Structure formats: structure tokens, C-alpha cells
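Data follows
____________
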Amino acid sequence: MNLNPETLRVHVVPNSAKEGFSRKNLDNKDSLEFGVTDKVYTLYDMFERAVREVPNDNYLGYRPYDPVNKTFLPYVFQTYDQVKKRADNFGSGIMKIAIEQAKTQGQDELKRVLDRNWAVGIYSINRMEWNITDRALSTQSLFSAGLYDTLGESSMEYILNNSEAFVVVCSLDKVHKILINIEKLPNLKAIVSMDSLETVNSGSTQQASYLPPPYNTKSVDILKQWASSKNVRLYDFETVEKIGSIDRIPHHPPKPNDTFTLLYTSGTTGNPKAAILTHENFSISAVYLSLLRKEKKKNRASMVSFLPLAHVYCRNHETLVLYEKGQIGYPCGDIAKVFDDTRVFKPSIFTGVPRLFSRLYSIFSEKTINGPGLLGIVSRKAVSDKINNLKNKKGVHHFFWDKILFNKTRAFVSENLEELKTSSAPTEDKVCDFLIVTLQTKIINVYGMTETIGAGISCSRDETDIEKSLIPFLGTEVRLRDVPEMKYLTTDTPNPRGEILMKSPSTFGGYFKDKEKTDETLVDTYWIATGDIGMINENGTISIIDRKKSLFKLSQGEYISPEKVENVLNTHPLILQSFVSGISTKSHLVAVIVPDPLTFIPWAKKIIESRRNDFDGMSAENCDVESLANNNIIKNLILEEIALLSQRFKLNGFEVVKAIHLEPIPFGVETNGLLTPTFKLKRFDAKSYYKEIIESLYQ
């Protein structure tokens, strides 16, 4: 391939050709060594530095719940210094509890505890106590193992046993789930409830929590008795802090290559794998994420932490906030109300995933470019003008359109918004452009995986850079390898194509207790096989063009990327979620469509009222999503909308969905288990769940 030296944005490593040349960041071309700055080599160092420099600045915020009025109150904050005191005490308390227990088990166990580097489980939604636990464990060179509900009870059991966790720190609603399985957890000797085990009015100073329904004093007493009967010690967070504050155990700081956390990656089959991620891994990643922001940022990083902390993406950005000495707000717990939290908190960064951004596009477009009459006409003109300005590098702001339209859309997310961050999958260009101009901000697409600390290659789209291709992170080397079964070759002209491989100093240290899986993932010792298909552009950047793992063929031999089609479908205001599938012996796609009740029901009512004779007496007033989903007229009209949408997004003929099932129940993390905690579709599970429906759509 002949690269254009005038537009080259990556460094092509000389003499690196194998199946294709490897590529690096131009600012880091002579070495992969990318050290952290300011002598911050561990997250312990990073936090201690922040406490020294900004002890009285707000760090962690939460919205207390008012059980009388059943509402969440405005954010209340704890400063860096306040969090430090709590973390110091909690870390000391965990060590004291472990030492006391180890003394009953002999000298070998006591030595293991005193040598540190053992795991503590964390099991809850995102909340302040999770972060404090992370800070606390670092003071004693301990590490965490994150759990989450969607893995199921068998995986919870596997994680606690695999990590050999002695203690679990969890929210009160998780305690009974652990006790039910306690007979299968021989290593677990203590449970720490993040919520107070006392009544709300007992004088507890733990203001961040309350006894959530259905727990009351009586049920908490039952939990205490149950734990005691199983020889498991049950504490609450505040009690462990008090234990640790008495003759506090001195800090035992970690080294850069010490484990910070085990992150368990969920697969479609078998047990989850535990990626070993170190303090240095996260420190390097935080520095680069901050460098991505340096040209545009006006304020220190701040965020509402709502994507699961048991995954690398949100954990990474909490570390970025710590590195910049910023603020983190925790949500009220209902993901459907996350924008209520962001409007109150006003973060500078919003971390999302493509499905969430497609949802934002749907909300905004319904109120603007797809609006009725004059509103729609004016909005389409405004969006068109701003996108043209963007492409001509005239910026994301417009003195007139922002004032009358887009300041309102920006405020819907955050008045202080500086950037949107997206990961896990590509976001449609049309969605990106629309959100950039309506939110008056840039979008940074970070591509990576757990094993690369969620980082590898990235691109920034804003008023000065509309380039949509990816360049390697500092300290990261990227190459392609052939995938002949999909006809992607590094010898393709004019653009080499193949599976993306990456290596970096921030690459994970392997899978915990699983050399076989480690060897499968690491190619030639250091390179990580991502499973994604990339293409090298004329300027040396990389574009993600396909997904190796989720592709399937139709009968005409064309490979289908279902995520690409779903990302298009999810931009429609009537569609909340979609699952695209196909059978290799058939020539077209089918889909399960979850309608958005907020737009779907009003739309359907208007149709029923205008075509009463076609609906056999169906009442527009009494219709709901379930009854509408079973109506063939409604179904066919949605199909017509999908055809028009596919044409607008220029999908190929074989990518157009030809039959649909309308599903009244949304895909969920807990309701039907079809979404991961980061809201990605669990495709293997969805295919099994809808197997009979998919087959029926072809009949």
C-alpha cells in the first residue's frame, strides 16, 4: 500500500512486516515505553497526590434518598480528605478482620494475610462505597474482584472461589444471595454491607445509604442470625471503619506491577475469565485519556459513574477523574433516570455506549428534525447548517441556532458537557454528527477491550477534526493479520484488511489461574487478538469495518454484521431496541424490534383514529404496546419505516430487514438477561431466547 506522507497520522514501524506492517502513534514512534508522569506509578500514589494538592475539593457525590417523600435529594459531596480518612480506616479494618480470622487457621494462613496481595470481592451497583473500597484496598496492597448479577449465581460462586476472596463488600440487597450459596464458598468468612445494619434513626453517620425496601429492622436481624448460623461474620461499612480507626494499621503501598483488580469478562459459554489488571496498567491509561482531553478541556474531569464498575470502561474513567483531581457523582440507581442525574450533577464527561447514544439520537430527533410542521422544518435547517459548518471546520457552535434550539438539548445532558465518550462498538456517523451539533461538544471513540485496559486506538471528532479513523494510543502498537475465511487479507489493495492485533505496556498480565486461555489470547507472546476487523486507510489510520465473532452468512454468501444494522434501526424514534438475526440457508434478515412506548403508542393511536375501518373496532384510547405489537397492520407500517430508514443510511440490499417481531418487553440486564451490565446485547442468549420466533419469521 502506498501511504500519503503529507496526510500520514501514524508511524509505520520499519522492518515490521509480517502479514502487514505494525503501526504506532507518531508522538511515540521510537519506543513502546510510555511512562506515567508526576511520579504517579500506582493508583495509591495518584490518590495520595490528589489529597495533598486538593484536600478540600469535592471528590465523591451521591444523592441521598428521602424515604418519606420517596425522592432523591440534590448531590451531597465528600472531599478528597474526607474520603482518605474513610479509606485509611476501612483498609485497616479489613486487614484487622482478616488477621483475626487467620490466627484461628494457623501460621501459614496468617503469613498469607500479612504478605498482602489477596482479593476482596465487591458486589453492588455503582456507589460511593465501591470507590472508597478501591482506595482502601490500595492502602494495604490488596485487590478487588468485581461481581455483577447478570453472570448468574453459578458465576458468582465461581468468581468468589476463583479469586479466593476472604471477604465480600456488598450492598444490603446482595447479602442474602451470598448466604444462600455460602456452603459452596469455603474461603468466604466475612461479609461487609455497604448499607447500615442499624435502623435509619439509630444515629448512624452513614448518610450515603438507607435501608432499601423490602429491608426493615426485622429482616436485617434475620440476616444477622442467618450469617451467624453459617459462621460468617456480618459487618456494615461504618463498623469496619471504626474497627480500623483504633490503632490503625500503617499503609502497605503497592508496587506498579501489583494487581489492582480482577475483571471477569463474560463469555457466551463456560466460566468467566479473570483479566489481571495492575496499578501501572490503570495509571498509564489515565494519563493517555487525560492527554486526549488536554487541547479542549476547560475544567477538570467530572462524570456520573453509571456504567458498571465491574467492567473496565467505567473503572478507567473513574481513574481519569482521580488523575485530574475531579469529581465523581453516583446515580440514583435507575438507569432510565440517568439523565436526571447528569442534569443535576452537570459533568464535563459523559461516558456512554452506542445503544445509549442511539437512544439520545431518537429522543432529540423526535423533538427536532422529525418534529411536526414548522418545528421540523426549522430543526432540519439548523442541523444541516451546523453539520456543514462542522465539515468545513467552522466549529460546533452557532450563535443563532444554539440560542433558539440547541442550548436546550445540551442542558438535557449537562450544561458543562465537554465531551462524549463512546466505546464497545462503532457509533453510526449520522448519530455522531447529529449529537456533536445538538450537544455542542466533541465525541471521542475509544476502542479497546478489558485485556488492553479498555484502550488501544481512538479518534476524536469535533470542530477541528472530522476525521473518523483511529490512531494508536501512546505506547500502543497495532497490526493486522489475515482472516482468509472472510476474505480479509493484509495484501488487499488499495487498503490492507485483517484482524486487529495490539500490544502495549498497559496490556494485561494474563488471566488469573488460566494459562491456557492466556496463551490463546496472546499471539506471539505479546500481541492481543481482538476479534475485530480493521482496514488501513491512506493516511495510515485504522477503521473498524467488521466483527469477526458475531458475523454470519446468508444464503447468497454475504457476511452480515448485525451490529451495523442494529445501530441503524436504533436511530428510529419508534424503536427502543433491536436484535437482528438470520439463517444461513435464507437470503434475508429478520429482526426482533422493541418499540419505544413514549413514541410508539401516540404514533399508533393516530393511525388507528385515521383508519378505524382497518382495525376491527380496536380502540385508540385503550391500546397498549402488547396489543399493538400483535397487529399486522402496525407491524407492516414499522417494516415500511425500516425500509425508508435503511435507504436513508444506504444499507446494502442484503442488510435490509424483511420481517420483524414486535417485542413489548425491553431487553434488560435482569428482566430477561439479554443485556450485559454495559448494555450490550448478549447475542448468543438472544438467539436462543428468540429461536422459535426467528424460525417463524421465515415461514
Remarks:
- The two ends are 47 Å apart (CA to CA).
- DSSP finds 22 helices and 30 strands in the chain.
- The chain has three domains: 21-37+281-299+348-547, 43-50+74-254, 552-697.
